[in-house]
Fold this protein.
Amino acid sequence: MTRLANPFPGGDPLFNHGLDLTVIGFVIVKTLIVFGLLLVSVLLYIWFMRKVIADMQNRIGPDQAGPFGILQTLADGIKLFFKEHSTPARADRPVYLLAPFVSALAAFLAFAIVPFGGIARLGTHTTFLQLADPPVGVLWLLAMSGIGVYGVMLAGWSSGSKYPLLGSVRASAQVLSYEAAMGLSIVGVLVHTGTLSTRGIVLQQTWQNWHSFVSQWLWLPAIGAFVIFLIAATAETNHPPFDFSEAEEELAGGYHIEYGGIRFAIFYLAEFMNMITMSAIAVTLFLGGPSGPKLGFLNQGGWVNVWIVPVFWFLLKLWVVLYATVWLRASLPRLRYDLLMDLGWKVLIEAAFLWAMVTGVIVVGQDQHWNLWIVTPAAAVAALLVYGFLMMCVPGKRELEDIR
Amino acid sequence: MWEQQVAFWVLAVAMAAAAIGVVRSRNIVHAALFLVVVLAGAAAQYILLAAEFVAWVQVLIYIGAVVVLFLFGIMLTRAPMHDDAGALDNDQRWGGLVVALFVLGVLIALLVNAFGGKKIHFSNALVSLGRTSHVGTDIFRVFVVPFEVVSMLLLAALVGAVVLARKD
Amino acid sequence: MTEFYRQYLSVAVLIGAAALMFGAMLGAGRLLRPNRPQPEKFITYEAGSDPVGGWGQSNVRYYVYALLFVMFDVEAVFIFPWAVNLKSLGVYGLIEMAVFIIVLTLGLVYAWRKGVLRWA
């Protein structure tokens, strides 16, 4: 299991030879295409979610608009464009108008680092099929989800009512808590890859043969990180069973109660974009991104194998993960808020630390040719001992009562 | 490189305008948002200096965490919703101006004294100095003690916060 | 201009294009939707009954979580470059990071013991 250094340390080779209007055009066209694709994906995902949940609950689900009701979300979206929208009298108008914009922009920009295809050549230009590949890739993701918090906080504050405010404080505290856990879980991948760039991470999970599924893709070497990441990402995107931002029975809605029409649609769009982005990041970090077997009977460097096949593998993996999210939504009831915060701070963060350290020991051990059959169990036992000691230091439920 | 100069001045003017917004604004959340603009401008300046990792840390820590902490603080203490004229204003603006000018003078003197004639020559070596892996090598090979001291500092900050948050 | 600046200029173009597209969506909404203001439409929504107004305060515990987040965010900023360089740092790096993490975990345990991570 050797992992190569990133052959593109400086990012997308599109910018290697100057920046003329063609290159800028490339960037803009890619942005437009990805924007369109994300919109379509969100429309499809919402329909898919409703249909699958309906199936699981023995209902029919949407079936009127288009074949199998596939145009239902589009119809809903178009309706929202024509809805009157009035800013509440007590709202803080500039911030109120800014909030949905910030939410949506952060959601879209987070997707920019996802490699959704291979490395394509068009004329004299070579480019990644991805919007941006900053060498700080993963930091970009965390920064954008940090900016996404502003959308939630500002929407709740600027509405000028206590219910949205309560909803937004609650939702943003949740997002922050799990952002910490998510960031630390990603470390479990980084110790293997040695690069932060998403393209670099994907290139280290290339497909050579069927064995690559376990030897190259990082879901197995980083299995603990994978589990932590999935839980944290679910909570980070306010997805059930962690959907506290819209606990109707407690909050009369959520941080966006005072929004209607297209502005509400933008919040909704941002929420599902986040969902898709997090699934895509899970695919990128743990499931090899666009890597997969190529069509053997076609030319390896032909346009089908370069343009189409990687995108196909990426989309396939993405929809498998998205299906899992729908499954979660249909299966699990909402947690209690204190349990949610406990899970984040008292379980996931410690687990992410331990996983990072144990993987760190293994990676260093491999590098220095230690006997892994001794080192791995030793590291695991040491980690468990540390964890046990920690658990002995913290009070149990009954003792906490006494402290209060 | 004139492009860098243009970018610097555009960013600098925007940052200065936003900084004035921070102190002029009568609504505390608006002030915090102006502060976000200033901090984002600083991140962009770091990019111009090829300090890539530091730039993203600026976004992550200051915009993504510190100002969010401010906003939390504002929302937990009765924040005035509307422009309560005078609520965030007092009679010390002239005193504040004097202090601000003094600090500006000190900073200018300091920077000119320290770096006055020096110039940064942009090169690929400089870019690689700012990359994450190089910064990591520096932190964990050269600045080990400061790095461990940071953990103590963070611990102290946390203990302080816990003491403040407890009712008794 | 070097490649480095070109990368970030393209990021600026990307952000600008994305902002324009969302702006276009909001602008299209403005052109398409009707506008018939009535005073009732601007009343704050409080679950249907007449709003009583007032300004709620939240629990101070949220603030502790935000502060903990700042701490762990700073930690993430250190742990990322560590993870990227781990192979070259070797055992030395492992020990350094273990000390760092243990000190920070002490903070978490302290908060836990004092009961501020608890709701009720």
